[in-house]
Amino acid sequence: MNTIRVVRGVGRAETRMASYDAALAAANIHNYNLVSVSSVIPAAATVKDVKTASDLGPAGGRLTVVEARATTGGVGTVSAGLGWATGPGPGLFYEVAGEDPAAVRRRVEAGLETGRGLREWTFDDETVAVVTADADGGGYTTAVVVAVYGEAESIL
Fold first, then answer.
1. pLDDT at residue 55, as a whole number
2. Which of 37, 51, 76, 92 is the most buried (most CB within 10 A)?
3. Domain span including residue 96
4. 149 to each of 10, 87, 94, how far by Cα in Å?
């Protein structure tokens, strides 16, 4: 588990959960059981922004993730933002959901700034990924940005 992949997707469907599943399918992580963790990046990890995951192992496996997710059943816009700050040691993720992509980006950047200030670590790089989707009110729309730690592990 030295690679953390950042993937993203948008999904639309008749139910909230189905739109979420469709967004995960767009990111190619829909066949796994996602286990959310807080937002610390291990020192030995490399973060790669890959947009869509390659095969991460057998269906039904467990994936450790940090996830930004926004869903609406109305008309408008949804935005999910995930930012990461890295350096020679540990790093941080920060996730935000909202309607306005610029506001989501600002909140991610502010969260990373606060997180950096709470730690005596060195941070050399910062990246923010925001996914935005327009919703027409015909069902549900979900936007996700997900950091996937390593590959799927057996859940049994």
1. 94
2. 92
3. 3-153
4. 20, 17, 15
Q: Where are the alpha helices (DSSP H) in the chain?
A: 16-27, 101-117
For 31-58, b/e burial (b = at least 16 CB within 10 A) is bbeeeeeebebeeebebeebbebeebee
Cα separation of 123 and 73, whole Å?
38
Q: According to the model, what pLDDT value does residue 138 have?
A: 92
- Residue pair 44/90 in contact by the 8 Å Cβ criterion: no
At 1 the pLDDT is 57
Is residue 94 within 8 Å of 67, Cβ to Cβ? no
88-106: pLDDT as tens digits? 999 999 999 999 999 999 9
Report d(CA 51, CA 59) in Å as an integer: 20
Q: Which residue, chain included where needed, has tokens 């190619």?
A: 28
For the chain, what is the domain count? 1
Strand 33-36 with 62-72, pairing: parallel
Domain with residue 37: its CATH number is 3.50.20.10
Mean pLDDT split into 10-residue runs, the chain, 156 residues: 93 98 98 96 96 96 98 96 97 98 98 97 97 95 98 94
